[in-house]
User: Fold these one by one.
Assistant:
Number 1:
Amino acid sequence: MIALDTHTKVYLARGATDMRCQIDGLAARVADVLQADPLSSHLFVFCNRGRDKLKILVWYRNGFWLWYRRLEKQRFWWPGGDEQQALELSVRELQWLLDGLDPTQIKGHRRALFSEI
């Protein structure tokens, strides 16, 4: 099992990705378009135009993992904008995304400062 820790970063490839791409095609997109290292052990997340399919690419020890998720009736929240720039999320925010939430709209408790207590 892959262990994701607080140092693991998650990068969402903005815009739509052709879901016919497999490991080599997605790794090439990570390197060429996102200007990132596909062997970095970070998670790279891709979504199709219909926003009902996701692929997650991650390097683990000596090879790639490719996870695929397809929704039957609903859609994922997905960022638009410049496809050359990835959106960075935490592992926790990725879980929210997979659960159907918009990670940019989730608000936690305000951080308390000792001087305010």
Number 2:
Amino acid sequence: MPDSDDIPKCEQCTKSICCQYVTQQIDTPRKKSEFSQMLWQVSHRDVEFYKDSDGWFIMFNTPCEHISSEGMCGIYHHRPDICRDYSNDYCEFDSPAEEGFDLYFKTYAQLLAYCQKRFKKWP
């Protein structure tokens, strides 16, 4: 039986963790109006925000439609370049991405509390 170190991580990962969401980097929010826009966005189901060492991101928790019932990529040989270029040297299989977040807002209430703390006068 092969040692788990010899099996590629993607073949050990049964939940296709990296294929369960989409992130997009956003400009660093500074103004109340920008945070107000974020509050509207995070009010929608499966929309979150985080800040890490690379900056601010909006995250949409929505699984890829090509994940098979076995948890593998159903279009692996025809997958988009972004999937081909993805490096799993260190990925969610190793530890949850949230461990690297400086700030993480999953809900309106969490982001609102941050806004109220950040701005002395929040509408």
Number 3:
Amino acid sequence: MPFASLEADAFEGYGFKLAEFNRVMDQRARFVNTRNRGPHRDYALVPVPGGGELARAWEVNRAYVDTDVRVSLTKLKSHVSGGITGGLKNLFGVPPSSLYGDDLREEPDEAAMGYRSNTMHNCTHRPRTSVNSFTGRSVEGDHGFNVPRFIVDLAAAFPLDLVVIDAISTIQSAEGWWLGSMVSVTRPGLLIAGRNPVCTDAVAAAVMGFDPDAPDRTWPFVNGSNHLALARRRGLGENRLEELETAGLSVEAARFEFQPTYRRLAG
């Protein structure tokens, strides 16, 4: 099974010796950087079932289709656009920088490493895909509208077989180091896993102290739409806690309340 990864030196920085891993595994597993097409001659064009809301299709590294099982391994944390980051939001890393990245000009660039803010957050630029893969129904500048819908369009196109959410030691109140003092470390000491990403992320949201079926523009989805509710309405899974069955610790026993993400002000 191929695994998407960051550059090898990122692993080295955390003490993970990629060369040693490859030697021990003896080709039974391999890491693939999916920020471009890699060793493949072309990209895979993956349609969104039902046409999608903001994306008709995704053009991606073939590792995502030449596989039997898809696993989303992610950190549990807050997110300014999505409310929370779980197995679903983790799919935002699937579209390659070479086609969707911020550092593109007019043509695809296999050396690109940029994020997707212009194409999939603020939606001020179109991706450099070979087909017109976006519907044009995004709202320019409204990341809270666009990001949740792209999350659901990705989840529909790339069904997950397993979600594992690391909530052992993570961050809260914002999604990354680039937000400086808005971010703080928290240590719930939990692992959350499930076969359906919507159900699993809903339990994770409840563990964080949030209502996974909260209305749009309310905590933790204060800056936009509740992507868990959007996913349920698309038939991808259940986000209403009373409809879910859990094993192991109860949600009440596991609850470790997070500070919600900050409210982004206009202007």
Number 4:
Amino acid sequence: MRTITATELARNLRQVLDQLVSDQEEIVVERNQQQVALILPVPGRQTALEAMADLYRTLPEDAAAGWLDESRRRGALSEEARDPWGTHGSGS
């Protein structure tokens, strides 16, 4: 945890915020040698794909097969997997 003065924060706000983002470390602000504020970094943002990327590593091995079977029973998926990079109508 880093400590800075209110004056330092006022003079260098952009640099302090940049460092907060890069270091992900809390910053205590002092005025007249008393702690007056605590600046916290926010958690990083992720897309849904990034958030789900490692999900398969935390699930039991049979979970994927169960999801696939249920999706097919509900009609959400066809019986055959298709290649999303296939040449259907690409014109090349």
